[in-house]
Write a structure and sequence with these properties.
The structure is a homodimer. Chain A has about 140 residues and is mostly helical. Chain A has six helices and two strands, in the order H-H-H-H-E-E-H-H. Chain A has helices at about 5-25, 35-45, 50-60, 60-75, 95-120, 120-139, and strands spanning about 80, 90-95. In chain A, helix 1 (about 5-25) crosses helix 5 (about 95-120), helix 3 (about 50-60) packs across helix 4 (about 60-75) and helix 5 (about 95-120) packs across helix 6 (about 120-139). The structure holds a DNA duplex (30 and 30 nucleotides).
Chain lengths: ~140, ~140
DNA sequence: AATTTTAGTCAGTTAAACTGACCAAAATTA
DNA sequence: TAATTTTGGTCAGTTTAACTGACTAAAATT
């Protein structure tokens, strides 16, 4: 193979992060949590989110997002409440269990990224993040 | 949301690359090619690859890889030949159509990355690639 | 008041992975 | 060299996570 494209690097790094996260979560008893559940935690708003808004943030259909939140609700990570302002809508909020998982996941990812930071040095790692952010924002 | 982790950036950028690639390929008539087919093209060796080796490089089971190469064979991108040195094995090689697709995909990705390079400037983009490579290699 | 849009569900489909059981050829070991 | 184990691959069936289409009811618009 000649020069691998940047995409190959991006994918490998992202995969290693996700694999690590779910391996660690499984070790700590959260075996039922899958990568796609992560999207829900990532996009949940403080005072509750609607399926439609989660779906649009995560870039998937509301039917698919509906399935994800239904699973998380049944597993006790989310609570379904009625939206006081809109009789059609449903608001989901994180339960205590949900908050716990979210902060554990954050911790696991932070410590994994710590290894990246150590590999490059803090300065270079900050630089890397800045460059990535610039690309994300330019899209 | 507070500071997004680096993984979020990596995923967004990778997704945009893949989405662009398959949108462009579809426009040029390769609608039948899916992201997972890309793994085959990425890991194919010059003088033919075995299912087992492709599977291991791509990090999936041989059954799954078997399905992918079967599809690509039926679509005319791969040719199945017997391995002269091993009666159990099968060698797949790219057909002319397969080579064409591979080089088109490369071109599309290169020009997409070109936009990233323009956003950051060549120097910073080279730096970014170097940092990513360092992380990939440290794994 | 009638119509259209929006939030969400139900039902069914598809894509892409998985496991388990198996066969035949090759490699290893006794 | 014969018996056993490993390896390359297939077949059959399952699972996960997405999808589309058709629908209901509430809200917003005309």
């Amino acid at each position: 193979m000649s020069e691998p494209n940047t995409g190959v690097y991006l994918r490998q790094l992202y995969d290693s992060l996700v694999t690590n996260l779910h391996k660690e979560l499984a070790l700590q008893g959260y075996e039922e949590i899958t990568p796609s559940h992560g999207l829900v935690f990532q996009y949940m708003e403080e005072n509750g989110s609607r399926i439609t808004s989660l779906a649009s943030l995560a870039g998937m259909t509301k039917q698919s997002m509906s399935a994800l939140v239904y699973q998380l609700e049944n597993l006790g990570y989310l609570l379904r409440t009625a939206d006081p302002d809109d009789g059609r809508a449903v608001l989901f909020v994180l339960t205590a269990k949900g908050e716990q998982l979210k902060s554990l996941a954050k911790k696991i990812n932070r410590s994994f990224e710590q290894r990246w930071e150590e590999t490059l040095g803090t300065e270079q790692y900050t630089l890397l993040r800045g460059l990535l952010l610039k690309l994300v924002e330019s899209a």
